[in-house]
Specification:
By secondary structure, this protein is mainly β. The chain has one domain: Methylamine Dehydrogenase, Chain H (7 Propeller). Helix content is 0%, strand content 51%. It contains no helices and 28 strands. The chain has a 4-stranded antiparallel beta sheet with strand order 3-2-1-28, with no helix packed on it. Strands 4-5-6-7 form a 4-stranded antiparallel beta sheet, with no helix packed on it. A 4-stranded antiparallel beta sheet has the order 8-9-10-11, with no helix packed on it. It is globular and about 45 Å long. The two termini are 23 Å apart. About 4% of the residues have low confidence.
């Protein structure tokens, strides 16, 4: 049964007691609470809170559908090996998919109605999972360390896996179900996005403070773009003109012009950290930073949401200026997010 959390816009107190309804939904995974919130992006109110597995990290939605998948990563002592599938319109958990020995599932992309592309750090694999039947269809070895995030081309033919431990991106042919090659990008390759036109891949190298731009067809590196502050997540606007980056160490969000590859703006998130921040995944590694990680953009490209994991807040910003326009109180340690359009 869904639970209802009194999420609030910090500028206006809003209590929610209604069940999930049709309409656009912002899905926010709360790692330390082991839950996901279904938020009305217009009001900031949570329509429902659903239980997931242990330490949910990322969220993927079925394009045009009503389903979402959440990767249950687990923690350092007890790695997870499951995916929770929910109906975000009816606000209910449908099933839990057991991944067996493929532990630490993390990055996910829903590619087609019956195909979920998932990284499994523990087994160094990319998985193709049927989220409807609840079974793994294919396993593809990356052979790289900490295969963390994944992006897929719009045609669903290629996947790009960011490998934190190897500082590389693994290119996978999803049609043939095999690895093509590794592209060395820089230390701590993590955040990754394919541009909407399917021509470029942008990779955030958190250890190198750079963004690598890769040509999708030739797999050649087009440019290394400086980006200070531990670039940890990378997303493109839906028109492909801007790239947004969350910078964990400095507590900032940055935007880049996709064509010129120049930084356009940078905004520091002036937030205090929660009392138990040092006990969480990032500990005190980044000092008093709110550690922004999860990042999503609205379909119209005007608004972005940033999950401040050490502040228990989702920050709402204008894409054009990165001006902070609202704060939404979340569950504990918000991270992975997704935006779903639904009539």
């Amino acid at each position: 049964m869904p639970r209802h959390r009194p999420w609030v816009l910090l500028s206006t107190l809003l209590f929610v007691t209604v069940p999930a309804l049709a309409g656009d939904t912002l899905l926010v995974a709360n790692k330390t609470d082991h839950t996901i919130d279904l938020v009305d992006p217009k009001t900031g109110r949570s329509r429902a809170t659903l239980d997931t597995g242990e330490f949910p990290h990322e969220v993927a939605v079925d394009p045009g559908g009503t389903l979402a998948a959440i990767s249950n990563y687990g923690n350092r002592g007890a790695p997870g090996n499951s995916i929770t599938v929910i109906d975000f319109v009816d606000a209910k958990v449908l099933r839990t998919i057991d991944l067996g020995t493929n532990t630490r599932p993390h990055g996910m992309v829903w590619s087609g109605r019956e195909r979920l592309i998932v990284t499994a750090e523990g087994s160094r694999k990319l998985l193709v999972v049927d989220p409807i039947e609840g079974r793994t269809l294919h396993e593809i070895d990356t052979g790289q360390e900490i295969s963390h995030m994944v992006a897929v081309t719009p045609d669903g033919k290629r996947a790009f896996v960011a490998n934190i431990g190897s500082g590389s991106v693994t290119v996978v042919d999803l049609v043939e179900g095999k690895k093509i090659r590794d592209v060395e990008t820089g230390a701590g390759a993590e955040g990754i996005a394919v541009t909407p036109d399917g021509r470029e891949v942008w990779v955030g190298n958190r250890g190198a403070d750079t963004l690598t731009v890769i040509d999708v067809d030739s797999l050649e590196i087009l440019e290394q773009v400086p980006c200070k502050g531990v670039p940890i997540r990378v997303v493109s606007t839906h028109d492909g003109k801007r790239i947004l980056v969350s910078c964990a160490a400095t507590g900032e969000v940055a935007s880049f012009d996709r064509e010129s590859r120049k930084e356009l703006a940078r905004r520091k998130l002036d937030l205090s950290t929660v009392p138990d921040a040092a006990t969480r995944l990032f500990g005190d590694r980044f000092g008093d930073s709110p550690v922004p990680v999860g990042l999503v953009v609205s379909p119209d490209g005007e608004t972005a949401w940033v999950a401040a994991t050490q502040s228990d807040v989702v920050v709402v910003v204008k894409v054009e200026t990165l001006e902070v326009i609202d704060l939404i109180r979340s569950g504990r340690e918000p991270d992975g997010m997704a935006y779903a359009q639904h009539d």
